[in-house]
Amino acid sequence: MRTCLIVDDSRVMRKVARRILEDVGFEIAEAGDGVEALAWCRAAMPDAILLDWHMPVMNGLEFLKHLRQEPGGDIPTVVFCTVENDRARIMDALDAGADEYIMKPFDGEIITSKFAQAGLV
Amino acid sequence: MKVDDALLISQLCAARAGLKIDPDKHYMMESRLAPVARRDGFASIADMLVELRARRDEKLIWAVVEAMAFGDTAFFRDAPVFDHLRDQVLPAAMQRREGGAVRIWSAACGSGQEIYSLAMMAADPPASAPSVRIDLYGSDLNERALEKAQSGLFTQFEVQRGLPIRKLVEHFEKQDDMWVISPRIRQMVRWRRINLVGDLSRLGQFDLILCRYVLNSLVEPMQARVLQSMVGALTPGGVLMLSPGDEVAGLHSALRPADGVPGLFERDPAYSAAA
Predict the structure, then answer these.
(1) CA neighbours within 13 Å on the CB side: how many for B145?
(2) Are B214 and B35 in contact (CB under 8 A)?
(3) Are A87 and B164 inside 8 Å of each other by CB?
(4) Confidence band (pLDDT; 50, 70, 90) for B42?
(5) Where are the domains of chain A?
(6) What pLDDT score was predicted for residue B275?
(7) Sign of torsion, CA B66 B70 B74 B80?
(8) Which of A38, A74, B72, B177 shows the greatest Cβ crowding within 10 Å of its Cβ?
(9) Which residues of B touch A94 (CB under 8 A)?
(10) Would the CB atoms of B164 and A90 count as touching at under 8 Å?
């Protein structure tokens, strides 16, 4: 079973995303910020990461830059999921190594379609 | 909604556009016609239909039919279809038309996502592609859908349905809460209101016609008529992209299934439309 780490400081968002991604066959792990997420990845690199931008301690963009420098950090497909919807911010995320990008608010169809485009579904 | 009102709507849609609208689907009718009634200043759909019965105003009749013809669409809907068009169908057509033009028609384009998806593909041909112009045409029965298509403006939800993020940043700009497709892509497409059950013989011929999620929304005699028109509008060897499960009964001598994705047919080069 493929694994997905959901990184978001909102427990509600993690719960919503978990339901959607479990329905398409992912085993889910959760982290509330970038530091916690990095610890997860160092222990077991997931296949995919659904990543919020604004989080305490370490934000999504910083986490992604760190992740891509870790051994095996190029493996996870990273899908940003954030309220940031400016073109420049999206470019920042892609430049840092994001594979796909979801602008909140989203629905189940958007998440599954983005994961499909990234070859994960 | 009253049963006779629903029946009237269903009959009008079938008579004018060949549309198969189940008269029991009151909720769908109400959700699609409420904006039409509001726009035209009626207090309710029922009031609008009283006026429609009394005056048989063509403009109002078409406003009702067009609203019922509204179809759902998305960028790169059914990704394997677009992969196949990009990798097989388009290169073959470009090879055939080297030095000339490949003509592509999205026959029920709705708000334009399908034909814009093709435009984005055509805008970035592989370096090895032969020199050829690609003419893209989008048509729909629904005037409002066409206006939206021509505007190139899409909501945040719409640009997230099927559109890869790299294509969004490459071909769109943000405009307030909306996203607008680049002039370069918008200018690649020509638009026209077309009723597919009408006479299509003067449209010319196309190398590729997309007519997806259309046939099963038509009453049966009109399905055959539209298919026959499509065959006439295809160049010999041209490709017709239908939906999975669409039947081409009665036209097996004209259309042969093509490899790649379900719903893909090729016009037999030996077929004569006049035969």
Answers:
(1) 27
(2) no
(3) no
(4) very high
(5) 3-116
(6) 47
(7) negative
(8) A38
(9) 165-166, 169
(10) no
* ipTM of model: 0.93
With contacts defined as CB-CB under 8 Å, which chain B residues touch A110? 157, 160-161
Phi, psi of B218, rounded to the nearest 5 degrees: -110, 150
CA distance A104 to chain B (A): 9
Record the tokens describing residue B244, joined without a space.
């999975």
Q: Which of B79, B160, B174 sits opposite A86 (nearest CB)?
A: B174
Query: pLDDT tens digits for A19-66?
Result: 999 999 999 999 999 999 999 999 999 999 999 999 999 999 999 999
Sign of the CA dihedral running B77, B78, B81, B82: positive
Strand ranges in A9-75 using DSSP code E only, listed in sequence order: 27-31, 48-51
Which amino acid, residue A11? R
Contact B173 A87 (CB under 8 A): yes
Sign for the pseudo-dihedral over CA of B66, B69, B74, B77 = negative
> Could B168 and A90 be called an inter-chain contact, meaning their C-beta atoms sit closer than 8 Å?
yes
- Rounded to an integer, what distance in angstroms lies between the CA atom of residue A114 and that of residue B74? 13
pLDDT in tens, B60-70: 999 999 999 97
Task: For chain B, list the domains and their CATH numbers.
Answer: 3-68 (1.10.155), 79-267 (3.40.50.150)
Residue type, B64: V
CB atoms within 10 A of CB B125: 16
Please answer yes or no on whether B169 and A85 come within 8 Å at the CB atom: no
Do the chains contact at B169 and A86, CB–CB below 8 Å?
Answer: no
8 A C-beta contact, residue A87 and residue B173 = yes
pLDDT digits (tens, 9 = 90+) for B202-238: 999 999 999 999 999 999 999 999 999 999 999 999 9
CATH code of A3-116, in short, is 3.40.50.2300
- Per DSSP, the residues of B242-275 read --TT---TT-TTTEEE-SSSTTEEEE-TT--TT-
